[in-house]
Write a structure and sequence with these properties.
By secondary structure, this protein is α/β, with parallel strands linked by helices. It contains 16 helices and 15 strands. The strands form 3 sheets. Strands 9, 10, 11, 12, 13, 14 and 15 form a 7-stranded mixed sheet that branches. It has a 5-stranded parallel sheet with strand order 2-3-4-1-5. A 3-stranded antiparallel sheet has the order 6-8-7.
Length: 408
Amino acid sequence: MYIRRHLEEQILKASKDYPVVMVCGQRQVGKSTMLYHIKEAGRRYVTLDDGTARRLAENDPALFFETYGYPLLIDEFQRVPSILMEMKKIVDQKALNGEDNSGMYWLTGSQKFHMMQNVSESLAGRVAVFDMAGLSSAEIEGRSAGMFHPDLEFLRQRLQYSRKKSVHQIYEEIFRGGMPRLCTTELERDRFYMDYINTYIERDIKDLAQVGKLSAFYDFLVYMAARTAQPLKYDEIAGAVGISAPTAKSWVSILERSGVIYILRSYYSNITKRLVRTPKVYFMDTGLAAYLCRWPSADTLENGAMDGAFFETYVVTEIIKSCYNAGRPTDFYYYRDVDKKEVDLLMVEGDKLYPIEIKKGKEPSHADKNFGVLQKLKMDVQPGIVLCMSDDLVPFNRDTWYCPVSVI
């Protein structure tokens, strides 16, 4: 069974305007499946995971493109990033000849394009780049696309199409995760994640960096899963895993580059020097994080010590997915100052600041206790929302509203 992806419309639109369209994201999130599903009948497909195709691309990129022609879908292009220079020559020559070069090449990659060394300049102005994550709740439920926005009128409209969920249903989603194969088949969850981790470590990690001890990297992966929704502190990671701080920084970069984690930057303003710059880290697939932390079931996770961290991770990553699916930048931050006043999410839009707090409860008390500190930033602070298990969008007071998590 194929679940329609919200990114499809953005891809088809970009393909009419750009010669190259690139979809990047974590392994197994459905990049190739989506592109194969929406491609035209005449578009050929080749994967650089195939040894024969990869050798040809490495040794004679010109012959590679002569062999496969266009329009062409190239899977796992990051295995031979040097093909991008030959691709640039081809699309530029077509433009010089006065021919239409739109939609010639579609690419997928398991690394974020802007973080790949020495390749991001090669197709500047010629490529539309999209990030992709696992299935969002809206995609699984068949709801309409649309980037999440904390504006109250937007939330009222979105609430009309959302499906009410119990906290138990939320944790079932958290425990399962958003990998398409787990959502559309009867595949055994633990088996899937075990194979996923083995493939990721054996293939991607060896490609991305010289990781001496793969067992140490696995320990690092488990530690990072246990720190989801927590501040990112390299010295703590290094001490816990038994590696150096520079190695910890390099390995975190690997996870970010391959879409496994999302790093939420702290909001910073020159107006006050009291803001903390430490970012926070979130696992993009909550099912993978729960598997690495060895939670045996959704019930134990819901009632365990990490229930709040996983709930926050679920909410933040659902919001990030909505941005990816709309092809929009993720203009979200979190706030923390030296007095330990923290706001879970801030959306910055021009001079407007939208504060968001995330709570597992139905009617959390004092949920807006830190919103007041934002006034010193001299921005236009909008009504704050508390994403929680509320049944409806209702006011906590004049400046703060409870909002059901199901709206995301």
